[in-house]
Amino acid sequence: MRDLSGGLEFLSLNWATVREQWDLRQAIEGCARHGIPGIAPWREPLQAMGLAEAARLIRDHGLAVSGLCRAGMFPAADARGLQAAIDDNRRAIDEAAALGAECLVVLAGGMPPGSKDLVLARRQARDGLATILPHARAAGVPLALEPLHPMYAADRCCISTLAQANDLCDELDPDGEGGLGVAIDVYHVFWDPQLEREIARAGAAGRILAFHVCDWLVPTRDLLLDRGMMGDGVIDIRQIRGWVEAAGYAGLIEVEIFSRDWWRRAPDEVLRIVAERYRTSV
Amino acid sequence: MRDLSGGLEFLSLNWATVREQWDLRQAIEGCARHGIPGIAPWREPLQAMGLAEAARLIRDHGLAVSGLCRAGMFPAADARGLQAAIDDNRRAIDEAAALGAECLVVLAGGMPPGSKDLVLARRQARDGLATILPHARAAGVPLALEPLHPMYAADRCCISTLAQANDLCDELDPDGEGGLGVAIDVYHVFWDPQLEREIARAGAAGRILAFHVCDWLVPTRDLLLDRGMMGDGVIDIRQIRGWVEAAGYAGLIEVEIFSRDWWRRAPDEVLRIVAERYRTSV
Q: Cα–chain-centroid distance for residue B176?
């Protein structure tokens, strides 16, 4: 297991952690200032800044891009909606390629408004992924399928467990050709009794593309915006990191915290604490 | 599949659905007034009313008791805490027996304060269940292990899937001697891609002891107190009921809604709508 206490070599900041305080330019400059070697942009601030300019600034500061957030969101009520999702995913792949991102984070999507059919949503997500996979392979951008916590199954991501994500990878990439894998976020999966086994399975297939950390607070006061800083909650992050690294993952560790509390803090203070907790609580 | 449209024959009201408006006596009388043939008391209002008096009133009104809520909550920081949980579970079994309850609903419990060890919590829950099972069998009160939604894994119930609950039943009751089964609440399990299979598995073992309904709202604004009335959310309740009944369950259908919104409504109106939705949306 890697020793993180001595430096920030593997740390990456997901822009959403400071999304209410900083635009993408400020976040890139902030990472450089704090010695954080990686960043994970989101597409909205990326497009606001301009793709070429963002790519240049990231390169000039020597940052790695642990992932681009986010694509997917396939399920739709009709063929036009499905096609719009496919088209948008292709653009996201091109953006990730331009950034030299390690992966494009893909959320399956939830049920379209009015639907109660999770099985259909999962089928649409599978078909959408199958459709964009050749484009991703051609662009050299691996798709990182991220299972989200089951509390988001209805409206955000009908892939709720790492087992499901692994199954889908097996189905869409039966020969291990690549271009498809998983993003493992401790917040979404820590509760899962099959976690250790499924991490090993993903690793054995060479499919762990990203590792995200934050913490689960008790009590959690909001389904979306009450994630905790590493060390403030109940997730045994180190144990999960141990499983992920034992499975062969040696990439960046991305901090992604959606939190009204942390969005109220001074962003340089947030980055200072992120760096500190990365050394002590990850 | 049973036709529910013609009457309320299989309906049961979980007291918590009107817990802010009515004590247990009022809820019993309310059920009788609305032609609802079953009730599921909670232990606190039961103890406040007095066990003998509650049992008498329930009997006098001809109500069935679909379950007593709730026991379990085993994990503790020390041996004294574990023993206190065991003792309390024994009392709960005796209360359920006095009421003639179909089952005692058991939540595994979460991690004790300060702990990040879900594996230990699960082991403590298993050991606690094993300890009380003989008492439950002697009292003729089946223990209904209820998996709770993974968003409660940390602080309420470290058994998050029906697969886990089924596994635990297999482990503690390998010979199918009985006295142990599962409670299936659509709110907690609807997201689970293994649900149909695990319902069939529980049914084949004769272990479906209770079936609870409400709905998952989009958006859900609170982790605890924003459950929906059947039909107002995204759960395909009828599909799940179909699986449960195909697996052999023919018992009461219990409505359990924790909701600040519904707790603000006039309780007779709540019962009227519960009865209506039971016929149209379950």
A: 21
Instruction: Check residue B103 and give its pLDDT.
Output: 98
Q: B219, A218: Cβ pair inside 8 Å?
A: no
Q: What is the mean pLDDT of residues A188-205?
A: 98
CA distance B221 to chain A (A): 7
CA distance A167 to chain B (A): 11
Q: Which two tokens stand for residue A120?
A: 């259909």
- Where does residue A151 rank: exposed (0-12), middle (13-18), buried (19+ CB within 10 A)? buried
Per-window interface: A 75-104 vs B, CB < 8 A: none
- In tens, the pLDDT along B246-257 reads 999 999 999 999
ipTM of the complex: 0.97
pTM over the 0.95 mark: yes
Contact B220 A223 (CB under 8 A): yes
B116 Cβ contact list (under 8 Å, min separation 6) = A234, A235, A236
3 state SS of A246: helix
Cβ(A215)–Cβ(A234) below 8 Å:
yes
DSSP element (H, E) containing A107: strand A104-107
Q: Does the distance separating the beta carbons of B235 and A191 come in below 8 Å?
A: no
Q: Are B200 and B228 in contact (CB under 8 A)?
A: no
Contacts of A175 (CB under 8 A, 6+ apart): none
Contact B112, B76 (CB under 8 A): yes
Measured CA to CA, the distance from residue B156 to residue A88 in angstroms comes to 40
Which residue from A221, A226, A215 is spatially nearest to A261, judged by alpha carbons? A226
